[in-house]
Design a protein that fits this description.
By secondary structure, the protein is mainly β. Helix content is about 0%, strand content about 30%. The chain has no helices and ten strands. The strands form five sheets. It has a two-stranded antiparallel sheet with strand order 1-2. It is rod-shaped.
């Protein structure tokens, strides 16, 4: 509060007679956090975009599995002979010798 003029000098991101109104009306989705000062969203892991509305897929698939985004789920499509959440498990435990 400035005594002489008795007015408020608002911080970035706020306006109004007493700085009571945020100038940013953006809504961050999926657990994103709004930074009022510059009206940007800091997105939670697994999301990106201006308002954190884009799902990212960062799962690492093993044994030549292919990472895919299915709706909001990040999954692995396993190569033949492997299974599990990240294709980490061989479906056959037999070990062949001599190139067999």
């Amino acid at each position: 509060l400035e005594e002489a003029a008795c007015t408020c000098t608002c911080a970035d991101g706020y306006e109004g007679e007493t700085c009571e109104t945020a100038t940013c009306t953006k809504v961050c989705a999926n657990g994103g956090v709004l930074n009022d000062a510059d009206c940007t969203c800091t997105c939670a892991d697994g999301y990106e975009g201006e308002t954190c509305d884009i799902v990212t897929c960062t799962k690492v698939c093993a044994n030549m599995g292919v990472r895919v985004l299915e709706g909001t789920e990040c999954n692995c499509i396993c190569a033949e002979g492997f299974e599990g959440d990240t294709c980490e498990t061989a479906t056959c435990s037999k070990v062949c010798s001599n190139g067999g």
